[in-house]
């Protein structure tokens, strides 16, 4: 029996429940089956007109709808689905009574076009200005829209439904958000503040303005003719990421508490690290130091060496720049091993789930450890000689995996990495 | 669990409708000054940002152009805080400084929105209309000015704060939790020094509309927070507040004196289905806060909106000895920024050996003679979340 403390004398943090929903489906079983079969969830968008758009595909979750319809509503529903699955699996607490805090990575909330148009229509005359909008906004006519479009509304819903304790934290570190939510949970358990934490990450925001915003920054793939082939991480002909939706929830507990209640331990969060890049609002520092620093901090936090990492679940967005910088950073830390260690990108199949990505991919990493099978990087037909990773091309691979590093390098310079293992280190 | 490490507030940066910097704010508060604009968004009332030269903290025009008002206000206040703490330009410290920002975001390009909306209403919008207009009329970098985590991003780029970076969202509660988590990390040794704060642009028509959906806006004429029984509501305010919080050990090692000690931050989210739920939540937090007796001062972010403000008044009436100050009166409601503002004013008051005077015609706020050694900072979100902090004189 291993001691319940890690190398730094801190409580060991384990995972006792996981839930996930992506364009591949709802639940771990469907997601894992399709992921390891190399299937893509990317499709041409049908949710709204695509005329005039430069990028017309996304990994939308179309089998979940909310009424009244809004991106925030969908984001909340996805979180609900993933969290139900995770809590059910963990068997922790009781229905509506989770014995710990909520850390929620969520897409920034804002009033959306359908609601804005509804208010505009209610004015009943043309050539109106903001004063006209203000004049009809009050009196309770649109009262639910105040609540719906508060940043804290999704957390408020989850607290009420799942009975988490204390003040919930809603956070954003762009593409690193999911990893940050997990990190906050780990830190709270390590501080001894709680024996359990509910870490949720969710993003249901594929709507016209969101898609266009990324498109205007030239961040998205425009290979619209074959949506399933558009996300090409690490390939020479990659041209940007594919926006997607999803949610991932992890129930974290201290090892001691999990064992005491007889919970099944699904894996261990052995280490987390983060480091800011202050170079530019969208581009990484060309010397790669923030990525290198983030990876090294994470290894140090886990008390591990690069040699102990068997597989890297890459950030792998398929933007020309990210993939190049990711190779630069990984090869600086892993040396020659960078060419041999399997590095695959789930985003080749589920797309970039933005605020959810870090958690969704942490869950896929834990499933990799459970099944001893590494999901592929699909659409890898034209390797990039400048990125000589073993990307586990196109087909899943059975392998002995004891430790996975999962990377998330966010827009606006927030980098975060996690190390997940099957057993305490 | 080892003894929690002592945490000090060693830097304060404030920019608001009352001016910029600590002296300007101290003078304004002592003069009971209030800066409101009842005309620009009539019948709505805002506390507009005082004139600020952004160049002094954001020297590159290119950086300023990459931001809208909210990010400029925040990046400016962050610079003031770093100056105040004496760490500006100290890359050794800044490179490992932790940052937690409480952020909203989402500033709109209103003319673009209105043009699109008017086309819908006149029936000139075909199915592809929205796409076409957004693709053509939105400037590509607008998104970066809207993204919640880009206030932290801009602070990193402009001021070189590049340790860890987290952005919390969630209105008033986000400001409480930013302080709570930063303090917890420092007390437990997970962090040595942190930059914590928020900013708000209250001069936004789209936000007035959002709060109007819930009938939360103060209308027609200004009144101090406690005098709004007949016409409840809040007046949005523009402000940026950042604090440098560091372990005593770390501060002493670099020879820095504190403004005050940040002893504790507690928070909760009460289900507000029954009347009295907020009062009950505040009482429970008060017990956890460990403020001791009912003398001393209390700074609140009470908004003037109902029913939260009445419930808070009910809580305050149970602690009548405390000298209360409502920042909503002088600064307006600044959402995520309100709690950091309360912490800043508490630390400032303790460091200046006095509590600033009351600003309240109904007499709920009383004078306080003598130097406060302990100030409680409290806040109940207008729709969700309650929080409290204990700020004390460092010994």
Account of the 3D structure:
The complex is a heterodimer of chains A (425) and B (395). Helices cover 34% and strands 18% of the residues of chain A. Chain A has 425 residues and is of the alpha/beta class. Chain A folds into two domains: 14-112 and 150-414, Thiolase/Chalcone synthase (Peroxisomal Thiolase, Chain A, domain 1, 3-Layer(aba) Sandwich); 113-148, no CATH class. In chain A, a hairpin with a 4-residue loop joins strand 14 and strand 15 (414-421). In chain A, helix 2 (71-90) packs parallel to helix 6 (153-162), helix 3 (113-123) packs across helix 4 and helix 11 crosses helix 12 (320-334). The longest helix of chain A is centred in the N-terminal third of the chain and has 20 residues, at 71-90. Chain B is an alpha/beta fold. Chain B has a single domain (7-106, 147-392), classed as Peroxisomal Thiolase, Chain A, domain 1. Chain B is built from 15 helices and 13 strands. In chain B, strand 12 and strand 13 (386-392) form a beta hairpin. Chain B starts with 6 loop residues before the first strand and ends with a strand. The model of chain B has no long low-confidence stretch (mean pLDDT 96). At the A-B interface, helix 3, helix 4, helix 5, helix 6 and strand 6 of A face helix 5, helix 6, helix 7, helix 8 and strand 5 of B.
Keywords:
heterodimer, A: alpha/beta, Peroxisomal Thiolase, Chain A, domain 1, 15 strands, 34% helix, globular, B: 395 residues, alpha/beta, eleven-stranded mixed sheet, two-stranded parallel ribbon, 13 strands, 19% strand
């Amino acid at each position: 029996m291993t001691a319940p403390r890690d190398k730094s004398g801190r409580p060991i943090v384990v995972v006792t429940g996981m839930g996930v929903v992506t364009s591949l489906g709802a639940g771990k079983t469907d997601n894992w089956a399709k992921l390891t079969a190399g299937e893509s969830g990317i499709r041409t968008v049908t949710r709204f007109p695509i005329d005039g758009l430069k990028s017309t595909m996304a990994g939308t979750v179309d089998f979940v709808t909310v009424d009244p319809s809004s991106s925030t509503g969908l984001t909340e529903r996805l979180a609900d689905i993933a969290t139900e699955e995770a809590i059910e699996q963990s068997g922790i607490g009781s229905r509506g009574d989770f014995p710990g805090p909520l850390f929620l990575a969520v897409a920034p909330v804002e009033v959306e076009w359908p609601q804005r148009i509804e208010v505009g229509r209610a004015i009943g005359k043309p050539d109106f200005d903001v004063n006209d909008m203000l004049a009809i906004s009050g009196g309770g006519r649109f009262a639910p829209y105040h609540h719906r479009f508060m940043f804290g509304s999704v957390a408020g819903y989850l607290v009420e439904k799942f009975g988490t304790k204390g003040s919930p934290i809603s956070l954003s570190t762009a593409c690193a958000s999911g990893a940050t939510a997990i990190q906050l949970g780990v830190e709270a358990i390590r501080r001894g503040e709680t024996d359990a934490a509910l870490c949720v990450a969710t993003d249901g925001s594929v709507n016209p303005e969101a898609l266009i915003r990324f498109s205007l920054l030239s961040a998205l793939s425009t290979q619209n003719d074959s949506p399933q082939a558009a996300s090409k991480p690490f390939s020479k002909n990659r041209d940007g990421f594919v926006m997607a939706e999803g949610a991932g929830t992890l129930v974290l507990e201290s090892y001691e508490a999990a064992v005491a209640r007889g919970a099944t331990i699904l894996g261990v969060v052995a280490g987390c690290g983060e480091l800011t890049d202050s170079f530019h609002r969208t581009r990484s520092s060309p010397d790669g130091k923030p990525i290198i620093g983030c990876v090294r901090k994470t290894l140090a936090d886990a008390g591990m060496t690069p040699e102990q990492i068997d597989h890297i679940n890459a950030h792998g967005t398929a933007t020309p720049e990210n993939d190049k910088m990711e190779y630069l950073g990984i090869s600086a830390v892993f040396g020659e091993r960078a060419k041999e260690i399997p590095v695959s990108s789930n985003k080749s199949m589920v797309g970039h789930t933005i605020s959810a990505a870090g958690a969704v991919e942490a869950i896929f990493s834990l499933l990799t450890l459970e099944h001893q099978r590494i999901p592929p990087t699909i659409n890898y037909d034209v390797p990039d000689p400048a990125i000589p990773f073993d990307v586990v091309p196109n087909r899943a691979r059975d392998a002995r995996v004891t430790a996975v590093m999962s990377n998330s390098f966010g827009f606006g310079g927030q980098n975060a990495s996690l190390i997940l293992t099957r057993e305490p280190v | 669990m080892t003894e929690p490490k002592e945490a000090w507030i060693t830097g304060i940066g404030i920019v608001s409708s009352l001016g910029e910097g600590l002296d300007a704010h101290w003078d304004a508060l002592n003069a009971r000054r209030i800066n409101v604009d009842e005309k620009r968004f009539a019948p709505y009332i805002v506390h507009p940002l005082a004139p600020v030269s952004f160049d002094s903290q954001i020297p590159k025009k290119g950086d300023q152009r990459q931001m809208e008002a909210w990010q400029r206000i925040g990046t400016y206040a962050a610079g003031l805080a770093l100056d105040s703490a004496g760490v500006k330009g100290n890359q050794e410290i800044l490179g490992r400084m932790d940052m937690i920002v409480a952020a909203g975001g989402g500033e709109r390009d209103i003319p673009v929105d209105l043009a699109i909306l008017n086309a819908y209403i006149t029936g000139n919008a075909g199915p592809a209309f929205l796409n076409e207009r957004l693709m053509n009329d939105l400037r590509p970098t607008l998104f970066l000015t809207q993204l919640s985590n880009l206030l932290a991003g801009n602070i990193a780029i402009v001021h070189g704060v590049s340790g860890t970076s987290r952005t919390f969202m969630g209105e008033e509660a986000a400001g409480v939790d930013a302080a709570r988590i930063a303090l917890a990390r420092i007390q437990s040794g997970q962090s040595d020094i942190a930059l914590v704060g928020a900013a708000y642009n209250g001069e936004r028509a789209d936000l007035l509309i959002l709060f109007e959906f819930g009938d939360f806006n103060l209308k027609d004429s200004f009144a101090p927070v406690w005098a709004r029984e007949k016409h409840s509501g809040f007046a949005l305010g523009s402000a940026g507040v950042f604090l440098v919080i560091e372990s005593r050990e770390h501060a002493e090692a670099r020879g820095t004196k504190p403004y005050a000690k940040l002893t504790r931050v507690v928070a909760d989210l009460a289900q507000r289905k029954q009347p009295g739920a907020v009062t009950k939540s505040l009482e429970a937090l008060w017990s956890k806060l460990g403020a001791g007796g009912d003398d001393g001062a209390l700074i609140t972010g009470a908004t003037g909106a109902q029913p939260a403000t009445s419930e808070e008044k009910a809580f305050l009436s149970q602690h009548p000895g405390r000298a209360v100050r409502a920042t909503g009166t002088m600064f307006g409601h600044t959402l995520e920024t309100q709690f950091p503002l309360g912490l800043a004013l508490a630390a400032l008051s303790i460091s200046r050996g006095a509590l600033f005077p009351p600003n309240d015609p109904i007499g709920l706020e009383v004078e306080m003679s003598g130097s406060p050694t302990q100030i409680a900072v409290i806040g109940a979100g207008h729709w969700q979340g309650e929080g409290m902090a204990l700020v004390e004189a460092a010994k």
